[in-house]
């Protein structure tokens, strides 16, 4: 009988990982999603015939069960996901904008910083002043490559229709300021990075000013960054810093976004 030996250094590396906090919402049909989600299940019995092109039946498999499968219909913006620069526009800084499969993996595993902006009212913009105050409360100076997570508290509404409408959003100036500090990944625990759609559209209709329309997204045309939307469980992080975020997106070729299982790695006690 063969046995395998795991190197002691790998055991030590695993021991230093500590607790993992899931910062994602599940992919599911929900009133919190703006677009439909459907999951067509091929069960274990039916799978025998379909997967073998009718050559076998369930009775040919142990226990009368073959293997199952699922066909899922959804958008790349369903569930917790990462928006790539291509989502914001065709170009960034005059160059073709990167699609989700072109995002550097080095961006997606880095120290995290949770900024508490729960004092920003629903429908309002998270400004540079809000970000600076949150950093002061966290007693932290942003470092190049850190992943910023905006804690609005909106994730408590997941599973309700209010999740799509009751949250603040990052301003264009706030987005540009974060990127200028060296941040390449910005996340938020809300339906979107910008303010709610109806609020932005109403401001635009009242003023005719295009700057009201998706300013955080539009900032990505001049300041290259990616954003994580629909984060969850930011309240489970014990502090504003001292953790590492992993947020590798599914590389959907040529797409502007990809589903992402975002987790925070906490150090061992």
Protein traits:
about 270 residues; alpha/beta; two-stranded antiparallel ribbon; 15 strands; globular
Could you outline the blueprint of secondary structure elements for this entry?
Elements (H helix, E strand, L loop, with lengths): L7 H8 L4 E3 L15 E5 L1 H8 L17 E5 L7 E3 L1 H4 L2 E2 L2 E2 L12 E8 L8 E2 L1 H11 L8 E5 L17 E2 L1 H9 L4 E4 L8 H11 L7 H5 L6 E4 L13 E4 L10 E3 L3 E3 L4
Parallel strand pairs: 7-9, 8-10, 9-11, 11-12
Antiparallel strand pairs: 1-15, 2-3, 4-12, 4-14, 5-6, 7-13, 13-15
Q: Main sheet?
A: 9 strands, mixed
User: What is the average of the pLDDT values?
Assistant: 94
Query: Largest beta sheet: what is the strand line-up?
Result: 1-15-13-7-9-11-12-4-14
Tally of extended strands?
15
Count helical runs: 7
Radius of gyration: 21 Å
Distance between the termini: 38 Å
Low-pLDDT runs of 5+ residues are none
- The general outline is globular
Explain what the structure shows.
- The protein is of the alpha/beta class and 269 residues long.
- The chain is globular.
- The chain has helices at 8-15, 44-51, 85-88, 128-138, 172-180, 197-207, 215-219; strands at 20-22, 38-42, 69-73, 81-83, 91-92, 95-96, 109-116, 125-126, 147-151, 169-170, 185-188, 226-229, 243-246, 257-259, 263-265.
Concise overview:
With 269 residues, the chain is an alpha/beta fold.
